[in-house]
Amino acid sequence: MSEDFQHIIQRQYELRDSELAHWIRDDLFSFPWWVGVSSVILLWIWFKVVDRSRFVEITLMGSLTGLFSTLLDVTGCSFVLWSYPDSVEPIFPPMFPANLVVLPSVYMVVYQIFYSWKSYMIASMGLSLFLSFVGEPLVVLLGSYQPTNWEYLYSVPAYFLLAIGVKAITHKIVRYQSSS
């Protein structure tokens, strides 16, 4: 093992210890922590309103939303475009509640209600604007999200393209399944 790699491993240990200490001291049982934990309520609401005849299709769409939003978020954090000072738990990246619960739940509801492409695109643009200019500033106000080299305006096309992309992929998979 090279000396550089050993140095990287040592830094990872130090980072792990610092993150755990920060989580115990600053995050655990804080108001943003409770907000993150309570986000699971969105999934419960979604289960109550989901169209059961399209359950698998809508769940696939939500799963793809979670996957791609997590990939985009990890990329943004890696390039220090934004960071997350608070975390619900110390093991997984802090953005997991938003990427795996909040965004998929909201996108699945939009997907279920607005089935035609035209209405879905209009609703998705509205959702993108809302998430960018209302949702993100609220999470900043909570102290759970900190844009460093990012503006709210940049999020609009990201949210919109995420919505369009996951709908297109979901439709392609559903059509593939129907054709067999």
TrEMBL record:
This is CBO0543 family protein. Keywords: Membrane, Transmembrane, Transmembrane helix. The chain crosses the membrane at residues 28-47, 59-84, 96-115, 127-146, 152-170. InterPro entries: CBO0543-like. It comes from Brevibacillus brevis. NCBIfam families: CBO0543_fam.
